[in-house]
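Supplementary notes for students who missed Thursday's class. We covered one full example, reproduced here. Read the sequence, then the structure, then the short commentary at the end.
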Amino acid sequence: MKKLFLALVCMVTLMAVTSCGGTATPTAAAEEGLEMIKAGNYEGFVETIYFGEKATEEEVKQAKEMYVSLFKEKGDKQITKKGGIASYNVLSEEIAEDGKTAKVAYEIVYGDGSKEEQKFDMVLVDGAWKQEIKK
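Structure (token representation):
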């Protein structure tokens, strides 16, 4: 009976961990980030960024604060100036042969009708795709 209970607990735990384990594809992760930008949720967007394995907790905290401030002060003004984000379209997804990095090209359509194409550099971290900021 104990073995059956233990097996059941292990199976439930495994299902919970894998279902919450992150975004399954680079495109899905990019779309999640774009939705956050569109909604003005810069704190949430910053959580989708990977700051590198060598970054300390304090460095990551400071970097997140800096990016949120930057997005609020400059990014939000640019988006508002263009009439907000009306929509976005993912144009392509290129996953590297090793399956650990990817590039997701997308187009943002602003409220004033203007369009802008950009790319997210993505990296697979602990089973979740994150945006990688390259220096």
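Commentary. Strands lie at 49-50, 85-95, 101-110, 115-125, 128-132. Residues 51 and 116 are 25 Å apart (CA to CA). If anything here is unclear, bring it to office hours.
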